[in-house]
């Protein structure tokens, strides 16, 4: 048989393999035994079955006959066990007594089946694992709705996930997209689903079910990548809330024109915090406390309770910094606020401890 290889075939195959490797979905896995340990266990079990079968034949050797030399010894017993368990069955050693034949029916035949199961156990397990993984993936795609897609699992992306999950969002409702397999492995180890691939490609975002997402967080390393991802994500999902991070403030308007609802400038924010810490270390410490979520002071958004309706901002017990009314965000000193309404939402500064649970209706504000 000849194998014909066309020019460039290796390159085409390699590119196809790379496309498959960079467009795959990874779900959180359960820990399993190492393959070497599994194989070792199966080999030991197979040897035990072989030895047991040979001993059965040897103890009942008077019921067997060897067509070549007549009597059956220990070597013949192991030979018979080997060819019988492997279903080869040359027929040179055969059971002749009723007891030996009954032993073959009720003992050696089940041992043969067990031996075959052990030998093909690894293959069966691999097929079963692939089938189970495929079923999990299909079920995940079917049930995934109103989820959060995080593009980039660096420092910013990881912090954004922690902030969103602090509101009660389950990890199963978070999908991480990143071009690095190692980064996605770290995300799946934390319990998040991951997609390996370039988020500027629509087929990669479709694997993350971005068209069904409720909110999209873009935390890429480069501003130009963030622009392309925002354009692609907005084209696939017109209703999702898109929040993007950029390094340079001059690129923020471009992100908003591309479809981002909010843009966080990380470099400018860090620079302002540095300058504030130089001018007023105490003020810088307070701002750092606000940025670090889960302890000290946190900025939260919550609904107005009935007891607060009709009161002014200053009469509310919590420290209110802004009021969200409709699509407008009003400062605490804005005369347009007047009295607090039931449909308003309050942005407040509250003190929390590491053990404090944030209610789902209290949303920490996006911080960089």
Short description:
The strands form 3 sheets. This protein has a 7-stranded mixed β-sheet, with helices on both faces. Strands 12-11-13-10-14 form a 5-stranded antiparallel β-sheet. The chain has a two-stranded antiparallel ribbon with strand order 2-3.
Largest sheet: 7 strands, mixed
Shape: elongated
The helix/strand order is HEHEHEHHEHEHEHEHEHEHHEEEEE
Flag low-confidence runs.
1-13, 356-362
Strand fraction equals 15-25%
3D structure, described in words:
The protein has twelve helices and 14 strands. The chain is of the alpha/beta class. The strands form three sheets. It has a seven-stranded mixed sheet with strand order 1-6-5-4-7-8-9, sandwiched between helices. It has a five-stranded antiparallel sheet with strand order 12-11-13-10-14. A two-stranded antiparallel sheet has the order 2-3. Helix 2 (35-59) crosses helix 3 (74-85) and helix 2 (35-59) packs antiparallel against helix 4 (98-119). The radius of gyration is 33 Å and the shape is elongated. The two termini are 63 Å apart.
Jot down its keywords.
368 residues, alpha/beta, five-stranded antiparallel beta sheet, 12 helices, 14 strands, 45% helix, elongated, disordered N terminus
């Amino acid at each position: 048989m000849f194998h014909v290889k066309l020019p460039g075939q290796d390159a085409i195959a390699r590119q196809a393999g790379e496309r498959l490797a960079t467009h795959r979905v990874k779900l959180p896995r359960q820990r399993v035994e190492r393959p070497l340990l599994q194989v070792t266990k199966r080999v030991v079990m197979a040897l035990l079955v072989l030895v047991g079968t040979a001993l059965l034949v040897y103890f009942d050797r008077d019921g067997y006959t060897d067509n070549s030399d007549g009597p059956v010894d220990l070597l013949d017993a192991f030979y018979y066990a080997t060819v019988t368990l492997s279903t080869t069955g040359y027929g040179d050693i055969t059971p002749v007594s009723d007891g030996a034949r009954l032993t073959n029916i009720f003992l050696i035949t089940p041992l043969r089946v067990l031996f075959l199961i052990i030998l093909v156990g690894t293959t069966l397990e691999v097929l079963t694992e692939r089938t189970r993984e495929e079923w999990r993936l299909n079920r995940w795609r079917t049930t995934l709705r109103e989820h959060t897609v995080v593009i980039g699992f660096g420092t910013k992306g990881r912090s954004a996930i922690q902030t969103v999950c602090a509101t009660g969002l389950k990890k199963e409702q978070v999908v991480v997209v990143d071009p690095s397999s190692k980064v996605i492995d770290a995300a799946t180890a934390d319990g998040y689903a991951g997609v390996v691939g370039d988020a500027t490609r629509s087929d990669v975002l479709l694997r993350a079910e971005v068209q069904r997402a409720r909110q999209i967080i873009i935390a890429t390393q480069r501003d130009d990548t963030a622009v392309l991802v925002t354009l692609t994500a907005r084209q696939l999902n017109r209703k999702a809330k898109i929040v993007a991070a950029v390094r340079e403030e001059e690129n923020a308007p471009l992100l908003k024109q591309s479809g981002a609802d909010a843009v966080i400038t990380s470099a400018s924010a860090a620079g302002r915090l540095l300058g504030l810490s130089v001018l007023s270390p105490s003020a810088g410490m307070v701002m750092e406390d606000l940025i670090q979520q889960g302890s000290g002071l946190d900025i939260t958004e919550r609904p107005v309770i009935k007891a607060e309706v009709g009161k002014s901002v200053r009469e509310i017990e919590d420290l209110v910094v802004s009021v969200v009314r409709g699509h407008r965000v009003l400062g605490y000193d804005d005369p347009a606020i007047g009295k607090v309404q039931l449909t308003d939402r309050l942005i407040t500064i509250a003190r929390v401890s590491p053990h404090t649970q944030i209610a789902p209706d209290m949303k920490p504000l996006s911080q960089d």
